[in-house]
Amino acid sequence: MEKMVEGKSITFILNGKELNIFVEANETLIDVLRNRLGLTGAKDETSDDGASGVSTVLINGKPIISSLTLAIELDGKKVDTIEGLANNEKLHPLQKAFIDKDAIQCGYCIPAQIMTAKALLDINSDPTRQDVQEAISGNMCRCTGYQAIINAILSAAKTMREKREINGEKI
Questions:
Q1: Cβ-defined contacts of 19-24 (< 8 Å, 24+)
Q2: Which CATH superfamily is domain 7-84 in?
Q3: Is the pTM for the entire model greater than 0.85?
């Protein structure tokens, strides 16, 4: 007798492109991203509690732990990963700032740090150091001591504000 697979076909926007995919009822977002779609930027949690934050992606602009999120919940939502952040081959200001400010050590936590920072800067274009510290508090880094990461985020925020001012956009 054949085993029945429970799940459903869902449609969501992944990095700006509509995607329709069948997901099993118990399949996590991290499993779909890494194992089925080949997007390996979000890292797999080493524990089941999501405490390190390394699997963070954005759902509808909010940072979420993809290893704790069932893929079936994505139907009709927007998902952004580190792979979709660069514009063509031009790095996002956050990515560039992380490089320029030496905020990358082993790189394991960096995609989650950057995506969390993007969520912050999307709602607060001029964060304080404390705003940044609070925003990234759910993302562990064992290499940098966080100061370089915070400096990179603040630098990117300044760059993004200046670019908006040059383009005449309202901040």
A1: 23/71, 23/72, 23/74, 24/71, 24/72
A2: Beta-grasp domain (3.10.20.30)
A3: yes
